[in-house]
Every structure is written in C-alpha cells, then in structure tokens.
Amino acid sequence: MKLKIFLVFALLVFKTFNATAQNSSATLSGLIKDKTTKSPLPYINVVLKTAKDQKMLFGTLTNEEGRFNLTNVTSGNYTLEITSVGYKTKSQKIFVGTLSDFLDLNTIELEEDINTLSEVVVTSKSSEVSAKMDKKVFSVSDNIAQSGGSVLQSMQNLPGVTLHEGKVQLRGNDKVMVLIDGKQTALTGFGNQSGLDNIPASAIEKIEIINNPSAKFDANGNAGIINIIYKKNKQEGLNGKIGISSGYGALWERKTNLPTIRPQYQMTPKINPSLSLNYRKEKINTYLQADYLYTETLNKNEFVTRTYDDGTIINQQTVRNRNTHFTTLKSGIDWNYNEQNSFSFSALFGSEKIIDNGDEPFFNQDYSQRLRLWSFLEDELKTTVMASASYEHKFKQPGHKLNAGINYTYHREDEKYFFTNTLPASVGQDAFKLLSDEKVVDINVDYIRPLKYGRFETGFKFRNREIPTNMQFFPGANSPIDANAGGWANYKEIIPALYSNYIFETDRIEAELGLRLEYVKLQYDVNPNHPTYKSDGYNYTEPFPNVRFGYKIDDKNKITAFYNRRVDRPAEVDIRIFPKYDDAEIIKVGNPALRPQFTSAFEVGYKKTMEKGYFTSSVYYRIINGTIARIATTVPGSSLIYNVFQNADKSSSVGIEAVYSKEITPWYSFNLNGNLYQNTIDAFTVTNLYPTPSTYYGKRQQMVSGNLKWNNSLQLSKTLKGQISAVYLAPDIIPQGKIDSRFSVDLGLKKTVQKGKGEVFINATDIFNTLSIRKDIQGEGFNYRSKDFYETQVVRFGYSYKF
Description:
Structural class: mainly beta
Largest sheet: 22 strands, antiparallel, barrel
Domain Outer membrane protein beta-barrel: 393-801
Subcellular location: Cell outer membrane
CATH topology of the largest domain: Maltoporin, Chain A
Oligomer: single chain
Keywords: Cell outer membrane, Membrane, Receptor, Signal
CATH superfamily of the largest domain: TonB-dependent receptor, beta-barrel domain
Organism: Flavobacterium sp. CFS9
Radius of gyration: 29 Å
Distance between the termini: 59 Å
Shape: globular
Number of strands: 44
InterPro entries: Beta-barrel_TonB_sf, CarboxyPept-like_regulatory, OMP_b-brl_3, Plug_dom, Plug_dom_sf
C-alpha cells in the first residue's frame, strides 16, 4: 500500500518557485605547438564551428606564447578547426557541458599529417532548475508573495524547503548548514541556524540550495546547504538601488488570552528601508549594502495542556510580544591588481536588538484557579562583526587559479531576563544574565585546474573557534530558577580539513568523485561547581566521501545518482549547560555529553526537459547514527519538565521529490513541487542527567509525511506581475510525538514603473489565517498537547528605485 502511495504521489507532486537559470557557457583554452620542435606557434587561426552544419561561430588567433581563448561558448557540440600556412588543418570535436565554466584542451600539436583529436562536450538546457549537478539557484526578487519580509520567510516557498519553529528544513530535516556568500558566519550560525527571521530579504540577491554538497564544502549539515548571496553589482560607474517597505501583521486575534494577562500584539507594524550602492572604475569595484528592519511581532502564542499520570492537569499559555531592530551593513572592495592577481576585502556588521514582553499563566484543569503567572521581559542584543580578505591568482590558462582567504568573525550575545513570579500566596522577582563572546578564524586555500574533460579541485581549510560564556541567576522568593546551575563555560573547537574533487564530463556522462578528511577537536570546560555537568568534549578524524554520476539519455532526458557522507556537530547552544527559563515549567537545557550524528545519504534522480517546461523527480534515502533530539523528562516530586538534547539511536528517512513546471500561456505559468517521505526513529533509551538522573525509553516511531506546494505566476500586463502560492504540510513525527498538518496561501502583486527603474509591490501571507503549529508529546509519566497561534498573517507593501 505504501509503495502504491509513493508511485501515485510521484505523478502528482511538483515544484513551487521560480529558479534563475544557471550560466551554461564556458571558456575554451589551449596551447598550439609544433609537433616536431615542440615550440609554441603564435598567430595560428582557431575557429569554432557548429557540429551539425559546420557554421562558424567563433574565431581567434593564438598569442605570442601559442595560447588561445574562446569565451562565452554556450553548451553544445562543436568542431574546433585549427589552420595555418605551412601546417595541415586539424579538426577536433568539442563538447561543452554545464558542470565546468572552463575547459582546457591542453596542448594541440600541428604537423603535416591530419590528426583528429578526441572529443570534448557541452550541452545547453534553458531551464528554471539548474543544469549543474550540485545546486539549485533562486532569485529572491521573483518571490513576489514574500517581498518585504525576512530571509526565512522568503524561503518558505522554495522546493523541498519547509519552516518549523524558526528553522529551515530540507526534505523534513532541520540539520541544514546556512552560509552567507559561501561562508559560515555567526549571523546565521556555525553549524546550526540562527537569525534568519531577522535578515531582511531586501539585502539578498539569490538563494542557493545544495541537497548533495560536494567534498569542497564543510561536512556539517546532513540535510544539505543553503547559501544566501548578498547583493553586489559590478556595472561600470556609480549605480544602486534604494527601497522601502512596510506592513502589518496579526490583523486580528486568533484565540483569546487566558484570563488576567496583558493583551496580545495586534496590527503589528513593520518597516524595512534599504540601500545598495556600487561603484566600478577600471581596476576597482566597491560596494555597500545597508538594511534596517524594524518589526513588532506576535512571536509566540502557544496554548498547552499537560496531563500527568497522577491525574494532575495544568493549562498554560505563553504569549510573547516581540520588538526587533535589525541593522546590517556589508561593504567591500575588489581590486584587480593585474590580469593574473586580484584582491578582495569585505566587512559585515550586524546588530540585532530584541525586546520581548510576555506572560505565561498556569491554571488548573477547569481554569478555576490560577496556579502561577510568569511575566517576563527579555532584553537581548546580538552584535556581529565579520572581516574577510581573499587573494586570487589566475594562471595563464583560463580557469586555472589559486585562491586563498582569511575570515574573522566576532559575535557577542548579551541577554538579560527579568521575571515576576506571581503565586497564590507570594510574588517574587527573578532574573538572569547571559554574556557570550564568539571568536572564529577561518583560513582556506583552494586550487582549481581545468582539464580537457572537466576539472580538478583541491584545498585546505582551518578553523579555530572559541566561545566563553557566563550565566548568572538571581532567583527571588519561591522561584523555579536553579541558582546553582549558573557560572561559566568555555567552548573551544579546532577543525583542520583537506579535500579533493575530480569532475569529468562528456556529451553523455557527468561524474564527480570527492573526498574530504576532517579532524575535529572540541573541548568544553565548565564551572567545576556546577551541580550536574562536568567538563567534556570529543575529537575524531573522519572521511567524508561524495560520488555523483549523471547520464544523458538524450538532449531532453537525464538520470543522476548521488552518494555522500556528512556529519552534524552539536552547536554550542546544544551543549550549553545553563537552563533557559523563557518557559517557567517546560525548561530547555543543553548537554555537554552530546556527540555528533553521522549521516549517509543516497539519491537517484531523473529530469525531463519539455517545451516551455520540465519535470524532475528524485528518490532519496538517509540513515543517521546517533540522532540528535530534545528529550523531555520529569523528576520525582516535581511537575517541571526538562527538555534536554540527547543522542538517540538510529533514524532514517526515505522519500520521493518531484517537480513539474509549465508555461500554459504567455501570461500564466505554474510550478508544483511535492515531497513524500517516511521518517523512522528507532527505539532508544537515554538518561537526562539534569537536574537529577531520569531515564526515558523511546519506542520505535514511523510515519509517512510530506508536503505539497503550488506556485502560480501571472503576467497581467507588460508591467504588472502576480503570484499565488499554496503550501500544505502533512502530519509528521518528532521525538516523543508528532506534529499536525499545516496549510497556508500567499499572494502578491508587483508593478514596474518609471520606465523600468521603479517597482512597487503589495502582498499578503497566510490570507486565510490557517497556519498554526499543533504538537502532541508523550513522556514518561506525562503527556502534553500544544497549539501555537503565532503571527502568520502579514500584509506588506513597498517601493524601490534603481539608478
């Protein structure tokens, strides 16, 4: 029955977002020599013709050193013809593919006898989905329905992407590594996700999704990689773009508060001015991207009913009204010193100020008695500074280059919480303060050598990371806060890594073989007076191979296969020993004994190119050892629940993803994207040590889940575009329970004005107000059900002008 469901779903599910076509052109280069004397031959005629009708497309002469370059050669089959007085004409079949931007034909020797050289390859496919094997690229400006929001919101319509509790999931898995301009930064987290909901989409040019990363990338993130590309123009002279957007969310109250607490936020305002400047002249290119995002948000509005085995029932609500000020500045300079050497320098500054005002009432079963009111104020400031310098040396052969770079990141987290703990017989004042300074140095060296049928890549990366943290608790009367659990901790991480990749391509075959070798040493020192945890850490040396293979059945049909091995190293917040009290009775705690989880992933795919459309599908399988998950337990004599990160046993996911895109008429096109998968979590046993040892026995869980996204694009006139997007997320399992289905519809309009230089838009998300998160959790001795009616319905409007 499950197999039938998979097969039927494979015919129905499809894609939901417009992707920008990848650059499918390349530069051909080579060296012409005399076969007898081996000396270079200058001023030799080199002509590129179509293979089918021998029509001449490009022509050039070799330079004084006998070298030639043919640039911007689109994918396809060609004949390379070399002629010169005194030498016999030489012809060679050439194929230009889509995997390499540079092809090296090596040395070509001329003699009196005709010598037909071996074949090379290049194919052209104009498609919304990248023809390259490693990634899909999406333009943020194409997502009209999410314009004016954050990067996180702009991702929710991307194929294979879902959002859950402020995190991005790829194919139902949130172990995603997020990069900015190809680098890990504290702005989005090293090895985890953070801050995506506060980065303005107005600062972003495009988003890359890499489901099967090569060995060139850090091995962290078993679900894949999302690379966020900031705007950076390279047009001659001074140019730029200025814009402003605004909006309102939480348009009405979705569920009434429990009694005696402050009102929920309604009609929450948003504002996002942005400025992009670029100046290019001769050898210098400078740029500046500046964005400010202010939002008021109903960040959380969760209703929870807890039921204990002894019959106790507690009803609670957590309402969190949030004000956020987020400023980002990114600037840099590119200096082309000469034709062979160039330098780039860039800096990024981010400041995120968050003020949370919230109430958390606790009532008995029939709401006749309020057991506790936990009112809180959070004052948090996150500051990020990043500086990068890189050097590129280009060898005489195009595409043959050496890159070196250094990246420094400093991130400070300054967090203060103030609580009023109101009980039936007393009122207490509680507080805690967290100060964390993260310092990261990354050094990388990369070497790329074009080959006749592809390229070879190799490189080295070294990371040194340190995060000293200090937490101080100030409990009041009858406080749930554990004052003894504070103190200091210091996270130290060293990661050297080596990688090599070989890419091969002909007119039928695409292949890549890579290996990354990483050594990781993590040391976590903690306050020796901590009541539960002691210093801990781990180290390993592990290989992370990747294999890719593609076969082109013909110009319109292609099959691919992938394998890679990846790791998810626990983030510093996952092992942080301090309990967090944003919920007074369901408390999150890290675990310094947490270990990495390792994943092996397999995928087989198929792509068919059709007239004004395409169809792709893939079947994938992932198996994870040492699955990282939060496990909720209680301790005897207390109703408090402790959510602690643990390594469960094995888990796996098998699924099928399909995409169909079609232009029906010049004014209407659609994408359907579907993902059907079966998640399995094997039985496991873990012991939460905090605050006292408590063992949980997890039963085997299995569920078929998935999502379906339908994106409709309307070209209403030459200057007016529209978009309607619908997303359905099926029920899914989570550790100790499940999450219910979710559904939403977004729409947007964008109009070009002022002869193409100006642009105005209006959009609305979750127009039917149907999106909410419902979870069921089953623990030892208790269970709880939660419903979070956080802010999902937002109307935005804006204007931008290019100059």
